[in-house]
């Protein structure tokens, strides 16, 4: 079995593909284009150090409150 990536140029093409899938001639798999950039690299530097520390403090406090309720 071969896998192909198809870029649709016309909405009518999707109808044709769905018909082929209904006839069980093909199987459609919706998949986004994967980015090769890591999320850590993508978002590095978006928050200031102070904002990051405030978020970490809030998370620590929330977790300790959660654990104290258990």
Descriptive notes:
The chain has a domain at 44-70. The protein starts with 10 loop residues before the first helix and ends with a helix. By secondary structure, the chain is an all-alpha fold. It contains three helices and no strands.
Q: Could you provide a short overview of the structure?
A:
This protein has 70 residues and is mainly alpha-helical.
Topology, please?
Layout: H1 11-22, H2 39-43, H3 49-69
* Strand proportion: under 5%
Q: Unreliable stretches, pLDDT < 50, 5 or more residues?
A: none
Computed Rg: 23 Å
Q: Based on helices, strands and strand pairing, what is the structural class? A: mainly alpha
Number of strands: 0
Give the end-to-end Cα distance, rounded to a whole number of Å: 52 Å
Q: Characteristics of this structure?
A:
mainly alpha, 70 residues
